[in-house]
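tRNA-(Ms[2]io[6]A)-hydroxylase
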Amino acid sequence: MLGLKLTTDPRWANIAEDNLCEILSDHAWCEQKAATNAISLIANNSEYPDLVKALTEVALEEMQHFQMVTELIWKRGYTLGRERKDDYVGQLMKFCKKDGSRNSAFIERLLFSAMIEARSCERFKLLSTNIKDPALAKFYYDLMVSEAGHYTLFLNFARKYAKDVDVDKRWQEWLEFESVLIQSYGTKEQIHG
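Predicted structure tokens:
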């Protein structure tokens, strides 16, 4: 369903499980950044009422996820670590086309968002099927379902509002780029690491 060209090595879930405090802190900040991204898209594209409505719901949901993850951190006696740079997301941002119309920049940001949600969904699925803790496995399964919805939402908005971009062609370019990029990740206790 996600169209990702390369799946994460299941051993990444073992790295995550061995470092739950770190993975949960990183996850919390990923949720906060996802909310911020949705708000930024709203602020820069407020002329689309359906997008504003849908992304307001996404921003609220992502902050609820942030809250859920931080509560899980504290319940387990961990400390929420400091926000850290997400190199994977930084590399995706560099792949965004910077030349072109306002519309093409908008579509690039939607595809960028869809890519992050797709990989997060794939990683959450991996956690849900490989973590030994049943409560945590269910937690990640539920989040996987949510992320899949966000992925399709961003991709559908890109298709709906593209004026000068062949979205399906550009999405394939994103998938190809990401399949090479992700090969450098999967060894750290980070959602995208």
